[in-house]
Design goal:
By secondary structure, this protein is α/β, with parallel strands linked by helices. It is built from ten helices and ten strands. Strands 3-4-5-6-7-8-9-10 form an eight-stranded parallel β-sheet. It has a two-stranded antiparallel sheet with strand order 1-2. Helix 4 (133-148) links the parallel strand 6 and strand 7. Helix 1 (27-37) crosses helix 9 and helix 3 crosses helix 4 (133-148). It starts with a strand and ends in a 43-residue tail after the last helix. The structure holds adenosine-2'-5'-diphosphate. Adenosine-2'-5'-diphosphate binds next to helix 9.
C-alpha cells in the first residue's frame, strides 16, 4: 500500500476506511473485515456517533493477533462544539476513551465552524457561533498542546479553504500536516491542491465515491451520481475494473489519501484493490476534464436562516442546497 511519509518518519497509508454513515451495529464488522483484508488506516470522528464500536473492533482485531496498534493509523476529529483552547483536550480524551486508545495518529479540527458547547448538531442559528479567526487560533493552540502531550502524533484540519489555511499558517507554532476535504473528479479544487502541495500539507479526499448514502437532507434533486459518470464508467470498462476503483486510483496516483466508506465485505475488498490499478496519462486527462465544481457536502447546514455564517465566510462560491432547509442529523 502506498503511503505518505511525515517529517517524524511516520507513514500514512493512502487508502483508508471511512466510517461516516456507518451505522452502529455495522461499523464494527466493517472495521474488523477491513483489517482482515489489509486496511491499516481508519478514519473516524466523534460526531459520527460510532467511535465506541470502532474502538471495540480495533481492540478485538489486536487481541486476535490480526494487527498491532503500531501498524494502524487512526484518525479522528474534533467536533464543532469543542472549539477553544481549553476544550480540545477533554474532547480528545473522550474520543480516546471511546476508541480505547492511548493516542491517535491524527486529530483534525472537523470544521472551521464553532457551535455552542453541548450542542450536537445545530438546529437553529442560535446554536452557531460567529466566524472568528481568533477562536480558530485558540483551538489550534489546543491542538498543538494535545500533540505535545502525546495524545495525537499528528494534527491537522478538515474543510479548511486556502484562506483559512493561510490564516492558520501565519499564527501556528506547529503546522497542520493534513487537510481533509471533499475531493473527487467533479470537485478537483486545483488551487487548493497546489496550495497544499506547496505548503507541505497532505490532502485527504473525503466522499471519494460521491457519498450516495448521505442523509436525504444533504442531497440535492438531480445531483450527478459520481459512480455512474459515463467517462469514469468508460475508463473502468477499458481496465476491466469498477468505477469505484477508477475514482480511488485517481487519488492514489496523485499522492492524495482517500477514505472510501463501505460496510460490505465485497466492496471493502474491491476498494482496497484499487491500489493495484494504474491509470494511463490519457485516462488522467479525461478525468481532469470532468471538474465541474460540484460540492456534495457543501456546508449549507451552517447557513440556516439567521446564521452568522455566510457563503463568503465559509469561503464557498455557491451552494446547491436551499439554505433555509434545516439539517437535523449529520451522522
Ligand atoms: P456500502 O457501505 O453499502 O458499500 P463515500 O465513501 O464517497 O462516502 O461513499 C460511500 C457509499 O459508497 C456507500 O453508500 C457505500 O455503500 C458505497 N460504496 C462503497 N464502495 C463501493 C463500491 N466499490 N462500489 C459501489 N458503491 C460503493
Amino acid at each position: 500500500m502506498r503511503s505518505v511519509a511525515f517529517a517524524n518518519g511516520d507513514h500514512l497509508p493512502l487508502l483508508g476506511l471511512g466510517t461516516w454513515k456507518s451505522a452502529p451495529g455495522e461499523v464494527g464488522g466493517a472495521v474488523r473485515e477491513a483489517i482482515r483484508l489489509g486496511y491499516r488506516h481508519i478514519d473516524g470522528a466523534s460526531i459520527y456517533g460510532n467511535e465506541p464500536e470502532v474502538g471495540a473492533a480495533i481492540r478485538e482485531a489486536i487481541a486476535a493477533g490480526e494487527v498491532s496498534r503500531e501498524e494502524l493509523w487512526i484518525t479522528s476529529k474534533l467536533w464543532s462544539n469543542s472549539h477553544g483552547r481549553e476544550n480540545v483536550e477533554p474532547a480528545l480524551r473522550r474520543t480516546l476513551q471511546d476508541l480505547e486508545l492511548a493516542a491517535l495518529d491524527l486529530y483534525l479540527i472537523h470544521w472551521p465552524v464553532a457551535i455552542r458547547p453541548g450542542v450536537g448538531f445545530p438546529s437553529s442559528a442560535a446554536d452557531l457561533l460567529p466566524p472568528d479567526d481568533a477562536r480558530i487560533r485558540a483551538t489550534w493552540e489546543g491542538m498543538e498542546a494535545a500533540r505535545e502531550a502525546g495524545l495525537s502524533r499528528h494534527i491537522g484540519v478538515s474543510n479548511f479553504s486556502i484562506r483559512k489555511l493561510q490564516e492558520l499558517l501565519r499564527h501556528c507554532r506547529i503546522r497542520p500536516e493534513v487537510n481533509q476535504v471533499e475531493l473527487h473528479p467533479l470537485l478537483q479544487q486545483p488551487d487548493l491542491v497546489a496550495f497544499c502541495r506547496d505548503e507541505g500539507i497532505h490532502l485527504t479526499a473525503y466522499s471519494p465515491l460521491g457519498s450516495g448514502d448521505r442523509p436525504a437532507a444533504l442531497k440535492a434533486a438531480g445531483e450527478p451520481v459520481l459512480l455512474e459518470n459515463p467517462v469514469i464508467s468508460a475508463i473502468a470498462a477499458e481496465h476491466g475494473c469498477s468505477a469505484a476503483q477508477v475514482l480511488l486510483a485517481w487519488h492514489l496516483q496523485r499522492g492524495i489519501s482517500t477514505i472510501p466508506k463501505s460496510v460490505s465485505p465485497e466492496r471493502l475488498r474491491q476498494n482496497l484493490a484499487a491500489a493495484d490499478l494504474t491509470l494511463s496519462p490519457a485516462d488522467l486527462d479525461r478525468i481532469a476534464a470532468l471538474d465541474q465544481g460540484v460540492r456534495l457536502v457543501d456546508g449549507s447546514f451552517w447557513l440556516m436562516e439567521g446564521s452568522p455564517w455566510t457563503l463568503q465566510s465559509l469561503d464557498r462560491k455557491s451552494t446547491r442546497l436551499n439554505s433555509s432547509h434545516l439539517v437535523i442529523s449529520y451522522a
